[in-house]
Write a structure and sequence with these properties.
single chain; 364 residues; alpha/beta; FAD/NAD(P)-binding domain; Polyamine Oxidase, Chain A, domain 2; seven-stranded mixed β-sheet; five-stranded parallel β-sheet; 9 helices; 21 strands; 24% helix; elongated; oxidoreductase activity; Amine oxidase; Flavin_MAO
């Protein structure tokens, strides 16, 4: 191949694909529209003093018993991980006026999940460090992909200094399928079946928001609570302990209210409702965190389209898009939504990267 492989998207799938290609001596470039790598992996700092930690506002866990790709990768990269804290009682809240019920689950009732020390961004950074300098190009938004007469592909890329044309032997699209289908102009157009296949894949996390409340210590543990809670009152439907292995404590939650309602309420009102709920569940100390982090993925235009704001009624059926037609062997799809196994998880992102690279190697 005289031209490089171009990877669109520097999330976990995109940078892992680049790392695998590099290890095989196949030149590649990664184009990322954001000002950072990671995509939906977003770990932000918060807390006080030397024990301040990094907290995940995107994916948080992996399950080593059956997610072998990520387990093997963090072992290979010597990335420390620790078990999700689940000791103690969990809470069930039915209404704001009723006291939450306290329950202690039988031993081994909760499947063991793991978290990465320093947040999932630690994994992103470690994979990125395996790439040659300059492989990832930030602030590079792909607007068009054109098939040339000689069989090569040309991308139209908007950069801070203007629009550039970049040639590629093939393109790996490592971004949400709906973003690829709706935001990139293909010439010739994608076959109807392929376009429909992309649009039918909801963006994982696309309609969700996440909040993390950081405290000086995990005080709920002292009172025999695991930090886990389920609520029908809201605004958080599901809450877990997000504390680092030592130092500050943290609680994080997923919202039960839909994206349209969050937009109507606004961030300030949403966060006040969160603090009210945490106080109801865990007492007055929970009302005054030292930091409060919030990310609404439904407002992230580089992650979601408007259709993703709708809440999913069931787990999507993910897998590789079908019927590429003339684009066969020129467009290859990665990203967690294209993995038939563990789609939506970090594991799915890694598996799809491996599959995409295998397809590239078969072109050689």
């Amino acid at each position: 191949m005289n031209d490089p492989i171009i990877i669109v998207g520097a999330g976990l799938s995109g940078i892992r694909a680049a790392s695998l290609l590099t290890s095989k001596g196949i030149p590649c470039r990664v184009l990322e529209a954001r000002s950072r790598i990671g995509g939906r992996v977003l770990s932000e700092p918060a807390g006080n003093g030397p024990d301040a930690g990094m907290y995940d506002l995107g994916p948080t866990w992996f399950w080593p018993e059956h997610e072998t790709y990520i387990q093997n990768l963090i072992s290979e990269l010597s990335i420390p991980a620790f078990e999700q804290y689940t000791e103690g009682a969990l809470l069930f809240e039915q209404t704001e006026s009723q006291q939450a019920e306290r329950h202690v689950l039988p031993e081994d009732a909760v499947e063991k999940s793991m978290r990465i020390a320093g947040g999932v961004r630690t994994l992103i950074d470690a994979v990125a460090e395996t790439l040659p300098e300059g492989t990832v190009e930030l602030h590079s938004s792909v607007k068009g992909v054109q098939m040339r007469d000689e069989g090569t592909v040309e991308l139209e890329v908007e950069k801070p200094d203007g629009v550039k044309k970049i040639r590629a032997a093939a393109v790996i699209l490592a971004l949400p399928p709906r973003i690829a289908a709706g935001r990139i102009e293909f010439s010739p157009p994608l076959p109807q079946a392929l376009s429909a296949s992309l649009l039918e894949k909801p963006t994982w996390m696309g309609g969700h928001a996440k909040v993390v409340a950081v405290y000086d210590r995990p005080f709920w543990r002292e009172e025999g609570f695991s930090g886990q809670a389920m609520s029908w009152a809201g605004p958080l439907q599901e809450i877990h302990d997000a504390s680092p292995p030592a130092g500050n404590g943290a609680l994080f939650g997923f919202f039960g209210i839909p994206a349209v309602t969050r937009r109507e309420l606004g961030k300030d009102r949403i966060l006040q409702l969160v603090l009210n709920q945490l106080k109801r569940l865990f007492g007055p100390a929970a009302e005054k965190p030292i930091s409060l982090l919030y990310k609404d993925w439904s407002d992230d235009s580089l992650t979601t389209v408007e259709e993703d704001a709708e809440r999913l009624a069931a787990f999507p059926e993910y897998g590789p898009p079908v019927n590429a037609g003339i684009w066969e062997k020129k467009l290859i799809f990665a990203g967690t939504e294209t993995s038939p196994e563990h789609g939506g998880h970090l594991e799915g992102a890694l598996r799809s990267a491996g599959r995409a690279v295998k397809e590239i190697v078969e072109l050689e």
